[in-house]
Amino acid sequence: MSWVTIKSSHYETDLLPLKSRLEAEGIQCFLRNEHTSQVMSHMATFVTELQVAEEDMEKVTEIMTEIENTP
User: Fold this and answer.
1) 52/70 Cα distance (integer angstroms)
2) Domains of the chain as residue ranges with CATH
3) Distance (Å, rounded) from C-alpha 40 to C-alpha 37?
4) pTM value?
5) Per-residue pLDDT of the chain (71 residues; tens, 9 = 90+)
6) Staple 49 to which of 7, 8, 59, 60, CB 3.0 to 4.6 Å?
C-alpha cells in the first residue's frame, strides 16, 4: 500500500480535526513523525504529516473540498 501526505504541520493539533473526519468516513489514516515532531518541535525541519492510502485519494479530496467550502 502506498501512502500520500495530504497535510502537514509543526503542530499535531492542527491535523487532528481532519484526521477525525477522515476516520469517521471510514478512511484509514495516520500521523507520520507524530512523536518526533513533539520532541523536536523547536526544529523547523520536523513536521507531522497526515497520510492516507493512495487508493482513498478521490474520497479524501472530496472531503477536503467540502470542508474548505463550508462557511
Assistant:
1) 22
2) 3-69 (3.30.70)
3) 5
4) 0.81
5) 899 999 999 888 999 999 999 999 999 999 998 756 455 555 666 788 999 999 999 999 999 999 989 87
6) 8
Q: Beta-carbon neighbour count of residue 47 at 10 Å? A: 21
8 neighbors 51 (Cβ within 8 angstroms): no
The span from the CA of 5 to the CA of 23, in Å, is 15
Cα separation, 6 vs 65, whole angstroms? 12
**What residues have CB less than 8 Å from 36, skipping those under 6 apart?**
46
- Locate 1 and state its grid cell: 500500500
Return the amino acid letter for 59.
Answer: K
Residue type, 6: I
